[in-house]
UniProtKB/TrEMBL annotation:
Residues annotated as domain Rap-GAP: 1171-1401
Source taxonomy: Eukaryota, Fungi, Dikarya, Ascomycota, Saccharomycotina
UniProt keyword tRNA processing present: no
Gene Ontology CC terms: cytoplasm; nucleus
Protein name: Rap-GAP domain-containing protein
Record organism: Zygotorulaspora mrakii (Zygosaccharomyces mrakii)
Molecular function per GO: GTPase activator activity
PROSITE patterns referenced in this protein's UniProt entry, alphabetically: RAPGAP
Pfam families (UniProt xref): DUF3384, Rap_GAP, Tuberin
Length: 1401
């Protein structure tokens, strides 16, 4: 307590200061006059007020007056303080300062203290307020010293109020000593009050005391704080009528205490606070004082921030046992705040202390059976973000169980089991949170967590569970866990997205060989059974069905061979078998009595299930090409064949179609191993069925298949993978690892023979053709190939069963076209069959010639190939073939095919040797008719062009180096331009000459009048005059000997051997030019004859032979007779070229009219140039083409052009294509296609006959440049036609493998598999196919691939090359010409020269 000296000194000073202020106030009230500016109406009022106030002050300060009067004056002055200047307020108190003495009656003291409080409050200046401080303190000390019983009564309350007004938040104006005194007073007041009777405590005094303590800078002692808390607690317990003001004061005091002096809060103090809080909570909740309760929540929040938070909770626990009703609510609120703080601490500052507090609180809650709050606590902890949560999750925190504390996971399990009803409220939330936090779920263990969740019936979110499962890596799932997943999550109520993710989980597990899901010691049968059951009960949508299919796919891959066998035999195949039967019965019932919605839905579900199983098997079968064992591939093949048979019996076309998609991709490599390949040779047939994507106009959704085909059940990444463990059943060494490919072919033939569905029927017809081109795949199944041929021939000659509706897209002609193309593949097997096989095939084709034009073209193409492959059968049916063709010559689009067939016929003289003269005339008549038709086509095309006023389209827009290939079939119609009509004419004249050369000599003489007559008719046509004249020359000279010569000399090459003194004269007549050069010294004449169809050069000996006997001069006498010498020898006379010509005409007995037709050509430079230009026109049809070898896996232009060698069979192919010549040995005018000696190699490959010569730009014969391959590119890049010998092994040919502006057509030769792996093996069969630039019609027989046998390969390829080259040359011309043949060009040149010569003469 402060000493007496401090009290007396500070009190005296304050009284003196107040006395001075009071005197100054009285003088001011006496002397101050009203302002002149004030209104007169208010002067009297103000005068009266001031006078009265002065009287009151005098009365108040009159010590002689009674206490009663002065007390009354104090009350009245307090009411008039508002009208007094604030600086004069302290003077008022001076008048009443003695009234607070302890000797003064209590009610007077109270009035004086109330005046004192009002005076302090109205002092705005801190310096004036400080004056009052010693007075109040002094009075407080006196009360403490004089009263034995110190009470916090109303008087003390007023004194404390005054101190609160003076201190005002611990104002810095107070001196340190003053603050110390005040603190000491409070330290004394509280113990004095606590030790005495507490019944008379005035609540306001306690409030003012708490308020004053909060304003002190220097804290009071802990004992004082504890005393105040106890006083508060006492008041709360005893004062039932205490108002909200006291509650708020207590709450504010405790809040201030926990916020600013938490370090001084002892356990006892904390207990008092806890008790107060509980008592207040009970009362306030009854009163529903929300605002005060809010303040209390702030207090609790503040407590939760301190280190005493757990201790406070323990206090609540202890009090809860005494007053559970009052405690529960505040307990819950505080726990929530505490949890929030602990959670915040975990986020902001993860420490071991935080973990310890959480564990301690959780265990306390569990012990007190506060299950609801405990679960809330755990939820709050789990709400911490995952990053921070992972940082403090450890075994001790979540899992460990010690003597003192249980881990959180153990608490969760025990709590939920003890109070199962809370599981519905909190259990699912907690479990979801744990699943979300992968660190926690991993610590607990996914298996334990899942099994506990489902065992306790907790409604955890399936999506969250699946997320946790997906996040786990390397975990070994127990079978029970997977079983519970299937039972609880794979149900209709689970969201589709979640079920999809579960399917994916099972797929990933199936692919992970490390999981117990796949380990041998786990019983998988039960799990597979459950999966099947769920698949049957669930209404699977398309995506979920896909994932179930994916699971089947994964299981077949990962299970061992025996497990796969059991899996398929026990589950999949029986399921498929039963489902197909059920669908068939439902279909029959529906057809009989109609359908209902439920029945339709059931059928749809069954169909979807069937599709899943079938697709799973098919995908697995395609994958099996990569299986190391080989067993799975064989077993899956056998299973699919069984399923195909069952589906065929049940007439389930979709299943048949799906299985066929896999089966038609089976191929066999050179070593006899199985692999899969996408079909690529189905353009023509798919177009016939209206399924070619490139030509498709209908929506693709209308059809179940199109070509090219892209289907989800065929993984393109697994194609071209060769399985060295799987072979075919024709291998000599029988093995269980063999595929019986005959089973598939037999099943396919059954489907085609008795078709029931157009989709599978058309699909098989389209793709079996390409599969049959793999000769080695089916070569040992002779009977099946023969059966297939008979089925196709029967459908071609008769008709398919009417059970198959064709619809509005496919016609009978389309079907017949498909039959014919299949026969082109069957034709390749003739060497394995009897002769009747080929005869029956050709017989069926002959019957098809009478059908539609769509069928005519492919039939002619097969007949063309048959001329090379089965000439005997063609020879047998040649007469009816020619008869049918003669009836179809008006088919414009078939013109090229007819001409190609005729050219193929005359490739072999034996083939046409049995034709009668009339039949041969029929051939020539057809050809002449085709020429006439082409003239009409040319005229109509020209008229159309002129009418529509468009320029002739340039077929070779040399603007880019890469072009799209034309995918249209040979049956597709195309625009017939003038250039194409000229191609028809060119091929027709070529056919005329080729046929004439092949017939025997006797027939030639009989044919001549007929041929000449028709040619003369053609001469009347202006556009054909030159060609007809030239060919008349050809046929005329053909009577006098064989055509051509092995050493034809063009021009006047022999002139260089003559001296300059020789004489030469030239004459031109109707259809030729004769040059005669005479040299007297040699007594020889060189005669050159230039005709439209040939050049002839021969030598004439001009020496005169005389029959004279030699004489001798035995006596050596001179001869005196001057004329005797002339008798013995004649004088030499120079010979003129004209003499030689006349002698030749004399010898030939040429009449005078013919002799006069010779016109001498003036020897001037202009005519010499014309003759030299004529000499540069070859007398045979010259062509050039490239031959390019593509080695294994070669893909680029540089790869193929750098080849300088090829395989053994490629070299064999070159040797069959022509003759090798040395470039440095050829004559000046010999055509080599631009090849130069040394630069382009030593050798060149050429071929020629009487009317044609072709030079091959063979890449492997040319050397590589030192820096590039530009020289090779300059040749083959400028060829219109290139032949590619393709041994790359790649599935598709790249038309732009050699980038060129000029290449129109590529003829690709692909050797089929050989029977052995010897380096010098030569394939027995070859696939030949033509690829053409976009916009180029498919006219050749190899537009659709053809299989050619080894003996006939070179003849056919050369035939195709010559035809393609002639077509390309004409097709790329930009304008119409006056002649369609090279002989016609020569004739035109000679005619022009004659006209010029005659014009000069």
């Amino acid at each position: 307590m402060p000493g007496p000296s401090y009290s007396r000194q500070r009190n005296a000073n304050s009284i003196d200061l107040l006395r001075g202020i009071s005197n100054a106030l009285k003088r001011s009230l006496d002397n101050k006059k009203p302002s002149t500016t004030q209104q007169k109406g208010t002067e009297s009022t103000q005068k009266v007020g001031k006078t009265y106030l002065l009287l009151l002050l005098k009365r108040l300060g009159d010590f002689n007056s009674s206490y009663q009067e002065r007390g009354q004056a104090a009350v009245e002055v307090r009411q008039l303080l508002d009208g007094l200047d604030q600086k004069s307020v302290p003077a008022v108190w001076y008048s009443a300062h003695d009234l607070i003495d302890s000797t003064v009656p209590q009610h007077i003291r109270r009035a004086a203290l109330e005046l004192l409080y009002e005076c302090i409050v109205r002092c705005e200046e801190d310096s004036l307020k400080v004056v009052f401080f010693p007075l109040v303190v002094n009075h407080m000390i006196e009360l403490m010293e004089k009263n034995e019983v110190f009470e916090l009564n109303s008087e003390v309350a007023l004194l404390l109020s005054c101190l609160n007004a003076i201190v005002r938040d611990a104002s810095p104006l107070l001196k340190t000593d003053d603050i110390s005194v005040l603190t000491a007073i409070i330290d004394e007041i509280v113990p004095l009050t606590s030790q005495k009777n507490l019944d008379n405590i005035y609540p306001e005094a306690l409030l003012q005391l708490m308020s004053l303590i909060q304003k002190l800078i220097k804290p009071v002692k802990e004992g004082a704080l504890l005393g105040v808390a106890r006083l508060d607690n006492y008041m709360l317990q005893m004062g039932e009528d205490i108002g909200n003001k006291f509650f708020c004061g207590v709450i504010d005091f405790f809040t201030w205490l926990m916020r600013n002096h938490k370090q001084h809060v002892s356990a006892e103090l904390l207990q008092e606070i806890a008790a107060s809080v509980i008592y207040m909570s009970g009362i306030l909740n009854e009163r529903k004082e929300e605002m005060v309760l809010y303040d209390m929540e702030l207090l609790l929040k503040e407590i939760s921030k301190t280190s005493k938070r757990v201790s406070f909770l323990e206090q609540l626990f202890s009090l809860n046992a005494i007053k559970p009703k009052e405690t529960n609510k505040i307990f819950d609120s505080y726990v929530i705040m505490l949890l929030s703080k602990l959670r915040s601490n975990l986020i902001d500052n993860d420490t071991n202390e935080s973990r310890h507090e959480i564990i301690m609180v959780a265990n306390k809650l569990y012990q007190q059976k506060k299950d609801s709050i405990l679960l809330k606590l755990i939820l709050e902890i789990l709400n911490v973000n995952s990053k921070n949560m992972e940082s403090f999750v450890d075994d001790e925190f979540f899992l460990s169980t010690t003597k003192n504390a249980l881990g959180l996971w153990q608490l969760i399990r025990l709590t939920l089991r003890r109070n199962s009803s809370l599981g519905r409220l909190f259990g699912h939330k907690i479990i979801n949170k744990i699943f979300k936090n992968h660190g926690i779920s991993s610590s607990i263990g996914i298996n334990n967590l899942l099994q506990f969740t489902f065992a306790e019936g907790l409604s955890a979110d399936p999506g969250i569970i699946v997320c946790a499962l997906e996040a786990e890596s390397g975990i070994i799932f127990e079978l029970e866990t997977l079983r519970l997943l299937v039972i609880n999550i794979m149900v209709p109520s689970t969201m589709m997205e979640v079920r999809l993710r579960v399917w994916k989980l099972f797929i990933n597990l199936a692919r992970d060989a490390k999981t117990s899901f796949l380990s041998p010691d786990v019983n998988k049968d039960s799990l597979l059974t459950m999966l099947y059951a769920k698949n049957e009960s669930l209404e699977l949508n398309s995506e979920e069905a896909t994932l179930f299919e994916e699971l089947i796919y994964a299981l077949i891959q990962e299970l061992d061979a025996d497990q796969v066998k059991d899996f398929i035999q026990d589950y999949i195949y029986p399921d498929i078998y039963d489902t197909l039967g059920t669908l068939r019965r439902r279909k029959s019932i529906v057809g009989a009595i109609g359908t209902f919605a439920r029945g339709w839905q059931t059928s749809e579900r069954l169909a979807r299930r069937l599709e899943i199983l079938i697709h799973g098997l098919i995908r697995s079968f395609i994958w099996s090409a990569t299986d190391d064992s080989g067993f799975k591939c064989i077993f899956l093949y056998q299973t699919l064949i069984k399923v195909y048979g069952r589906a065929a019996g049940c007439a389930h076309a979709d299943t048949l179609l799906d299985i066929a998609r896999a089966m038609i991709r089976i191929r066999r490599d050179i070593s006899g191993y199985l692999y899969f390949k996408n079909p690529s040779d189905a353009i023509g047939i798919s177009s016939a069925f209206g399924r070619n994507k490139n030509l498709l106009k209908e929506p693709q959704q209308r059809f179940k298949w199109t070509f090219p085909e892209s289907t989800k059940i065929i993984d393109d990444n697994l194609l071209e993978k060769h399985n060295i463990h799987v072979m075919f059943d024709d291998i000599n060494e029988k093995s269980t690892q063999c595929v019986d490919i005959g089973a598939w072919l037999s099943a396919a033939i059954d489907t085609i023979e008795i078709p029931r569905d157009l989709e599978i029927y058309s699909y098989l017809l389209t793709h079996l053709c390409g599969q049959l081109s793999d000769i080695t795949l089916f070569k040992c199944h002779h009977s099946l190939i023969d059966r297939f041929k008979r089925v196709i021939c029967n459908h071609l000659t008769n008709s398919i069963p009417s059970i198959v509706p064709l619809g509005d897209i496919i016609s009978i002609s389309d079907l017949h076209s498909a039959y014919v193309r299949n026969l082109s593949a069957v034709l390749a097997y003739h060497s394995f069959q009897s002769k009747s096989f080929a005869d029956e095939l050709v017989n069926a084709l002959v019957g098809g010639l009478t059908s539609w034009e769509k069928t005519l073209i492919p039939i002619l193409h097969i007949l063309t190939i048959s001329c090379f492959e089965i000439p005997q059968s063609i020879q047998r049916y040649l007469t009816p073939i020619l008869q049918h063709i003669q009836k179809r010559i008006t088919s414009l689009y078939a013109t090229a095919s007819i001409l190609e067939f005729f050219l193929a016929l005359c490739e072999s003289r034996k083939l046409i040797s049995n034709l009668t003269i009339e039949e041969i005339k029929r051939v020539f008549a057809i050809i002449f008719k085709l020429i006439e038709n082409s003239v009409d086509l040319k005229i109509r095309s020209k008229q159309k062009r002129e009418a529509e006023d468009y320029e002739v389209e340039k077929s070779a827009p040399y603007q880019r180096l890469e072009y799209e290939i034309d995918m249209s079939p040979s049956t597709e119609s195309f625009l017939i331009k003038e250039s194409l009509a000229e191609f028809f004419q060119n091929q027709s004249f070529r056919a005329l000459s080729s046929w004439f050369l092949q017939v025997n000599e006797s027939c030639k003489l009989e044919l001549m009048p007929f041929i000449i007559k028709n040619l003369q008719s053609l001469r009347a046509i202006k556009s054909l005059k030159n060609d007809a004249t030239a060919y008349m020359d050809f046929f005329s000279r053909s009577r006098f000997g064989p055509q051509g010569s092995d050493n034809i000399i063009h021009g006047e090459l022999s002139d260089s051997a003559l001296e300059e003194s020789s004489k030469m004269t030239r004459w031109i007549h109707d259809d030729g030019l004769i040059s005669i050069r005479v040299h007297d010294s040699l007594k020889k004449a060189i005669v050159s004859v230039r005709k439209p169809s040939c050049n002839r050069i021969f030598e004439v000996d001009l020496s005169v032979s005389t029959d004279t006997q030699p004489s001798y001069d035995i006596f050596n006498f001179p001869d005196e007779d001057e004329n005797s010498e002339s008798l013995r020898s004649s004088k030499e006379v120079p010979i003129d070229p004209e003499q030689v010509l006349f002698q030749l005409l004399y010898i030939g007995k040429i009449n005078a009219s013919f002799e006069n037709s010779f016109v001498k050509i003036p020897d001037v430079i202009s005519f010499r140039r014309s003759i030299n230009a004529f000499d540069r026109i070859p007398d045979v049809d010259i062509q050039k083409a490239g031959i390019v070898y593509i080695g294994p896996s070669q893909r680029t232009e540089e790869d193929v052009l750098r080849n300088t060698d090829g395989s053994y069979q490629y070299q064999w192919f070159l040797s069959q294509m022509g003759k090798f010549i040395k470039l440095d040995e050829v004559s000046k005018f010999f055509y080599t296609g631009g090849l130069v000696p040394k630069t382009d190699g030593e050798y060149a490959l050429v071929w020629r006959d009487e009317i044609t010569q072709i030079a091959y730009h063979t890449v492997t014969l040319m050397p590589n440049d030192s820096d590039s391959i530009s020289m090779k590119k300059s040749h083959v890049g400028n060829d219109l036609v290139n032949i590619f010998y393709d041994e790359s092994g790649l599935p598709d040919f790249n038309f732009n493998i050699i980038k060129s502006q000029f290449t129109f057509i590529s003829i690709v030769i692909t050797p089929q598999s050989v029977d052995c792996e010897e380096n010098q093996a030569i394939a027995d069969h070859y696939k030949v196919k033509m690829y053409r630039r976009s916009g180029t019609p498919g006219l050749l027989s190899c537009t659709h691939f053809k299989i050619i046998g080894k003996p006939n390969l070179s003849r056919y390829v050369r035939h195709a090359c010559l035809t393609a080259n002639a077509f390309a040359q004409k097709y790329c011309e930009n304008r119409s010409s006056d002649a369609c043949s090279i002989w016609g060009v020569r004739c035109k040149h000679l005619t022009t020269l004659r006209e010029r010569v005659c014009a000069v003469l």
